[in-house]
Amino acid sequence: MINMDTGLSARLTVLPQLSRFFRAALSHATLPLIVLAALLGAVRVVPILLGYWIYGDMGPPFLALYRLVPSEIVAACMLVAVLAAEECVRNGVRRLTAYIPAVMAAALLSGLISAPLIVLLHDPRFPIMPAHRYSGTSGIALFIAADALARGGLAAFIFANRERWLMSVRHLREAELDRARIERQLAESELNAMESMLPLAALISSLEAVGSLYDRDRSGGDRQLAEVIDHLRSVTASIQI
């Protein structure tokens, strides 16, 4: 009894964690990404429908849904899989380790969802696809899952490489920003060191003294100006890195 209660409580604590995980993953689903997934889902359907339109046979009313619904279900499942895989990558999981089970799960889920809908939407006047004719619901699910794994896996691979490249670019930019920040801090520290070793007020006072000395004794002014210059050189040489 204690073991059953412990297992039940452990499963109940996992559910909120999964909910938070998928909320965080789906929060990165931008509108352009959703539109791109929908367009990729329709890519396979559009040539088929155009072919019927060109030959003047639009088919039964459910033809468009019969072709479009499974493709869009595959696109939606793959989109969620990619977002979940990227969330795992953000949590420290290797990209390949995150993507392989996510894509496989999405392919299987898309088959399980699409197969009953295909059977439901099938119009008796429209000949069913040869691959679906004698296989039944389970065979249709496996066929769609395999097709989703092939097409969706390729799209996920392209997206993963794109994200890896973008991450490399971001890391490079961050490194450049850190280097610029360090150089600015170094320059500020050098300036502060120079100001501490040679206060600006003292420099102005020395130059004013040299200027007044020039009015009385030009040779003495030259000597004092040379001393000021030598002092400035020693100060700047002592703080160079």
How does this structure look, described?
This protein is mostly helical and 241 residues long. It folds into two domains: 29-185, no CATH class; 198-238. Helices cover 86% and strands 0% of the residues. It contains nine helices and no strands. It has helices spanning 2-26, 31-43, 45-54, 63-90, 95-121, 130-133, 136-197, 200-216, 218-238. The termini are far apart. The model has no long low-confidence stretch (mean pLDDT 75).
Overview in brief:
With 241 residues, the chain is mainly α.
Indicate the topology.
Blueprint: H1 2-26, H2 31-43, H3 45-54, H4 63-90, H5 95-121, H6 130-133, H7 136-197, H8 200-216, H9 218-238
Rg calculated over all Cα atoms: 36 Å
Q: Indicate how many domains the architecture comprises.
A: 2
Largest sheet: none
Q: Figure out the total of helices.
A: 9
Order of helices and strands: HHHHHHHHH
Runs in which pLDDT lies below 50 for 5 or more consecutive residues are none
Number of extended strands: 0
Approximate helicity band:
over 70%
What is the average per-residue confidence, as pLDDT, rounded to a whole number?
75
Backbone structural class: mainly alpha
How would you describe this structure in keywords?
241 residues, mainly alpha, 0% strand
